[in-house]
Amino acid sequence: MDTRAWIGRFAAVIDERGAELTELDRLAGDGDYGTNLRSALGRVRANLSAENPSTPGAVFTAVSNAFLNTGGTSGPLFGMWFREFAKGLGDEVTTRSLATAATEAEGTVRRLGGAEVGHKTMVDAMVPAARALSDAAERGAPVETALKEAAAAADTGARSTEALLAKRGRASYVGEHARGVVDPGALTVAWFFAAAVS
Ligand code: ADP
Ligand code: MG
Ligand code: MG
């Protein structure tokens, strides 16, 4: 698994479709989400070319640092999420290391943000993706299969946010107004896992 190519594909999707995320945040929040994310990905590219990391752990450390320096609620939460990928993946991407990383990562985001599944946040995609990776690891499935299953689970989780009433984040301030709007953070997580296998 070439994690740098994975991040490159993720950044390309954000370049292409960032405006859709901003529109979702405009409908349910303050409309800065796509801008925050694009600037994070700009720093990701800069960090990767400056550091030229050679291990998955080092790649995800560069990604994490870029997000930790980004504004909005999502910047630090994604920064801490990616930090657990850096720790969990280390020198080698295996189905087991992905499962460990994703499980630690979703736990960290839930702890820091206080959101659980069903609160209409990024957590709604992070938790099912981690569960899919853990199930794949239990079966001894190959990395490609595991990531495909994680992408499908994250996509289902992201779609599920459309019908929800938000309990965390700015979308919770507008109550019923945000029902019918997919959470942009959850959609980003789905795109991240889709980029692994695209
Ligand atoms: P802000 O509301 O500060 O402008 P962003 O636009 O950067 O934040 O990010 C919004 C996204 O952050 C939401 O789509 C949601 O997925 C996520 N989010 C907001 N609050 C929380 C929280 N408490 N826990 C987890 N994720 C959250
Ligand atoms: Mg916002
Ligand atoms: Mg904001």
Automatic annotation (TrEMBL):
Residues 1-198 form the DhaL domain. It comes from Amycolatopsis endophytica. This is Dihydroxyacetone kinase-like protein. PANTHER family: TRIOKINASE/FMN CYCLASE (PTHR28629), TRIOKINASE_FMN CYCLASE (PTHR28629:SF4). SUPFAM superfamilies: DhaL-like. Its EC number is 2.7.1.-. Keywords: Kinase, Transferase. The lineage of its organism: Bacteria, Bacillati, Actinomycetota, Actinomycetes, Pseudonocardiales. GO terms for biological process: glycerol catabolic process. GO terms for cellular component: cytosol. It holds the Pfam family Dak2. One of its GO terms (molecular function) is glycerone kinase activity. It is an enzyme of class 2 (transferase). PROSITE patterns: DHAL (PS51480).
